[in-house]
Design brief:
This protein has two domains: 118 residues, FAD/NAD(P)-binding domain, CATH 3.50.50.60; 128 residues, no CATH class. Helix content is 31%, strand content 24%. By secondary structure, the protein is α/β, with parallel strands linked by helices. It has ten helices and 21 strands.
């Protein structure tokens, strides 16, 4: 293939598919390039939250615009993405969380958010099956929402195709071409795509595409884990809750439970290259991050992750010990369940 486009979008996750959709809708000639399959990595595996709550103030105006888009996206795309505007809740169990909640309230008032601090009785009313005995309240934003990550990006991709975009799955972008310091094309497995602009939405792979251009994009891969239960006989109003663990109930009654504060960083060459930049962040979150030295380390040393065709879709193994601990914490909040079993898990 040797074609010309106005814009080439690299990466078939939620950012890339949404960018391709809106560009194509605006009449641009767009190619969406994905080394594996659309929505294969992070965008299908996250919590699904669309939130203003707890954000840095710089992000909130963008998130308010985002919420407006999500409220109308199912009508616009003509299909369901399981959008639910039923809120984001952070349950307060200790003084530190109380202080963080109270510190966010002036920000919420500045931007006119619906955020408020609930009493334990309020929490029990919102979550009728929740046991509030250890609860000191909650930070709650009822106008935040969530969508189904497995549905959202594919829906945007189909919308982009209907608007005339070209989709190239299982086609890795190998390098970005420059002419007089401006982008002019993308070399792919199927040939060169000439273009005037590039949207680089490659997620974990972004730094590797930018490196040959002399652009440093410090990024460390952190592995999180989520498990999905069977249908549970409780009502969580389909909102996103972060209590002793993080969870979201799906429309079908199943619950996604995340190992929320126990991420893994698999040590790689990038850990050394970018390590100093991340020391302040690591120090601030040291209780929530564990380091692993294993197969990813050896693969990194062998240059395996520098070849975009080696891993069409990153599929790291879940942290089953972490999931067992998260399930136990979930039952502490909903003791009427007795126990929970996972139907599947991913990382």
């Amino acid at each position: 293939m040797n074609a010309r486009f106005d814009t080439v979008v690299i990466g078939g996750g939620i950012v890339g598919t949404a960018a391709a959709y809106y560009l194509a809708k605006a009449g641009k000639r767009v190619a969406l390039v994905e080394k594996g399959r659309v929505n294969g990595e992070q965008s299908s595996r996250n919590w699904g939250a669309v939130r203003t709550q707890g954000r840095d103030p710089c992000e909130i105006p963008m998130m308010l615009d985002c919420l407006e888009i999500w409220r109308g996206i199912e009508a616009e795309l003509g299909e369901s993405v399981d959008w639910r505007e039923q809120g984001q809740m952070r349950i307060i169990y200790d003084r530190a969380m109380r202080e963080r909640a109270e510190a966010f309230m002036p920000i919420a008032r500045e931007f006119g958010l619906t955020t408020r601090i609930l009493t334990p009785n309020d929490v029990a009313e919102v979550l009728p099956h929740y046991d509030p005995r250890d609860c000191h309240g909650a930070l709650f934003t009822p106008t935040d929402g969530n969508a189904e990550p497995e549905k959202a990006a594919p829906a945007f991709a189909r919308g982009a195709l209907r608007c005339g975009a070209t989709l190239l799955e299982h086609t890795a972008a190998l390098s970005i071409d420059l002419w007089n310091h401006a982008v002019c094309g993308v070399e792919t497995e199927q040939g060169r795509l000439a273009c005037e602009a590039i949207v680089l939405a490659a997620g974990a792979w972004t730094g590797r595409l930018l490196k040959p251009l002399g652009i440093k994009h410090p990024c460390l891969w952190v592995r999180g884990t989520v498990g999905r239960t069977g249908v549970l006989p409780i009502e969580l109003r389909k909102l996103v809750v972060w209590g002793k663990c993080a969870y979201r109930q799906r429309p079908d009654g199943r619950v996604n439970i995340a190992v929320a504060e126990d991420g893994f960083h698999d040590l790689m060459l990038d850990s050394l290259v970018h390590g100093l930049k991340f020391l302040p962040l690591a120090k601030r979150n040291w209780r929530n991050l564990r380091f692993s030295l294993g197969k990813p380390t050896m693969r990194s040393l062998m240059g395996e992750f520098d070849d975009f065709t080696t891993h069409r879709t990153l599929d790291p193994r879940p942290d089953w010990k972490g999931l067992a601990k998260a399930a136990g914490r979930f039952v502490e909040e909903y003791p009427g369940l007795g126990s929970v079993q996972y139907e599947r898990a991913w990382a």
